[in-house]
Amino acid sequence: MDRLLGRLAGGRLPTRRPPGPRNRHARAAPHKLLFRGAGPAHALHHLGLDPPARTSVAGGSAVGRPLRDRDGRARTPDDRGGAVTDTFHGTHVLVTGAAAGIGRATAIAFAKAGAKVSALDRDPVQIPAGDATPGQIHPVACDLSDLAALERIFADLIAARGAVRVLVNNAGVDRRIPLADLDAATWDEMMSLNLDHQAALARLAAPGMAAAGGGAIVNLTSTAWMKLAGTLAAYHAAKAGIVGLTRGLARDLGGQGIRVNAIAPGRVVTERVEAKLTRDWIAETHALQCIPDLIRAEDIAEAALWLASPGARMITGQTLVVDGGVV
């Protein structure tokens, strides 16, 4: 092995660098992990709980050294530097379920990275002032369960805004349905609300992506189906189906320069969850996760942003679990 390494190194064995001094910040206590994001912290305040004391890692690595861009400029978590921003500048990104939660956070994240975002939802999409340049996020009223209408809306969008280069299939509905009530109509409805539109939009977007030189599709699934939760059989079937859809599309579309991946979020503190947060729920969540922090919608949005970026250029057919370390 040493002779082989010597040949690879041009006849000289590479020398090992002595380990540097141990950084005293490298093992911050779990209770000092940062509660990031206004939503969870705001909810904790209303519960009479204050976020734990911060070990500030804003703009830095886990050992306290600041992250820097190519010019040596220190970066913060909201400062993505030039690489990502340049990548998505002018790119047409379509996000479904964009009226709230993960969908809205994802639309905002891509807009901040320079994209032209088409934000689809059956509910009104309202983006707070300052979260995007006016006109950069284009709200589109759309019932995703009406596939014929979806096809017409998609055709209008690409005629007006160009080919979709990034598709984020986020929309979905979780509904507890006892097996006795899971008749054929209810089953079809759950597939329609969670799975069918993902396949339909992938089919519609793929030709334009291929003609433009490639693209990325990110499908939102869930960790719920991995945990054997009760009365969610239809929802679990749809969300597990998204993983199968993702892998099948990755094989079919890879040769056209289109990558297809999925994200499986865990317990995410969206607006709907924040409205009913309790001390017990927070304590249970911290106990379940390896990382005792609350997951924000923005955490999932950042994962989608990365999967769509050139930084993930050789990643396809995969499911990225973002759950703080549970499954």
Automatic annotation (TrEMBL):
Region entry Disordered: which residue ranges?
Answer: 1-25, 44-85
* Coiled-coil intervals: none
For this UniProt entry, which segments traverse the membrane? none
List the Gene3D superfamilies hit by this protein, alphabetically: NAD(P)-binding Rossmann-like Domain (3.40.50.720)
Pfam families, per this entry? adh_short_C2 (PF13561)
List compositional bias (Basic and acidic residues) regions by residue number. 66-81
Composition bias type Low complexity, residue spans:
1-13
What is the similarity comment for this entry? Belongs to the short-chain dehydrogenases/reductases (SDR) family.
Protein name, per record = SDR family oxidoreductase
Which taxonomic lineage does the organism of this UniProt entry have?
A: Bacteria, Pseudomonadati, Pseudomonadota, Alphaproteobacteria, Rhodobacterales
